[in-house]
User: Fold Aldo/keto reductase from Corynebacterium breve.
Amino acid sequence: MIPNIELNDKKSIPQLGFGTFLVEPDQAERVVSEALEVGYRHIDTAAFYGNEEGVGRAINNSGIPREEIFLTTKLWNDRHEDADVALNESLERLGMEYVDLYLIHWPLPRNNKYITAWNTMAEQREKGLTRSIGVCNFMPEHLDNLVTSTDVVPVVNQIELHPWMQQKDTRATAKKHGIAIESWHPLGQMKKDLTEFPAITDAAEAHGKSAAQVMIRWHLQNGLIVFPKTNHKERMQENFEVFDFELSDDQMSAIEAMDQGDEGRIGFHPNERE
Ligand SMILES: NC(=O)c1ccc[n+]([C@@H]2O[C@H](COP(=O)([O-])OP(=O)(O)OC[C@H]3O[C@@H](n4cnc5c(N)ncnc54)[C@H](OP(=O)(O)O)[C@@H]3O)[C@@H](O)[C@H]2O)c1
Assistant:
């Protein structure tokens, strides 16, 4: 039911997954277990989220074969020079022998160590500790630098992307290199007053769907990989029920017209994150 996206290393990833940023460590096992019950088979976590233990317990106790679940974790910013140790620590917390995808969480261009981290991650992939490797929050210049400085192209770039900030330049650069895009804050964290955005509410009304479902559908129809987060099982179900309707070209264009470029940013700018 969930489509797969083929990555540039020939692995594939479920296009719809489940995010775990701000899922408290003591809630993670319950929340991820419920997401797996709903049907999600792609879970996105990070060392920085502090919830890898609970995420790993939920997966390991689910009874679902490990190979049926796609698990991503990420290298935090203070570990660019010892990624080998950092991944082993994540695997230990997860109780796993490998992850499906390991990502550099932020480029930290001022530190200029992401190439060091990347070379280590390429070795980790050779050792089978991670099946695929990628990056987050890389701007076009970081992507170009990584690809020209090393022989290893990231499979994904996970970036802030939602109707208010659509990242057209970074998406074009990623496309040039054959890198898939994952959208974070895909719902704008549901922080906006959506009554001010009829492109979303009109489409929701026309399809008998919620605003969240319309936004998830917009990511999917743009070929983006998306993993909304929620602590609530009924919302997990809601966010999963997005394959029984289709936004029209006009509805897609109306949401595209909401783009505010950099003005629409909610999270950190990649060059400013420490
Ligand atoms: N690489 C990076 O730097 C980075 C940064 C941020 C996020 N991420 C990843 O991307 C994932 C998704 O982004 P995000 O969690 O920041 O933001 P998001 O998915 O856009 O929004 C999550 C918020 O929306 C609410 N929500 C979810 N579904 C809803 C629904 N159907 N109706 C109403 N409210 C709903 C949740 O509330 P409740 O939980 O209360 O239901 C939560 O407050 C993260 O979890 C994480 O895995 C990566």
The mean pLDDT is 97. Residues 19-21, 44, 105, 136-137, 158, 184-190, 210, 212, 227-232, 235, 238-239 surround NAP (CB under 6 Å). The radius of gyration is 18 Å. The domain at 4-190+222-246 is CATH 3.20.20.100 (TIM Barrel).
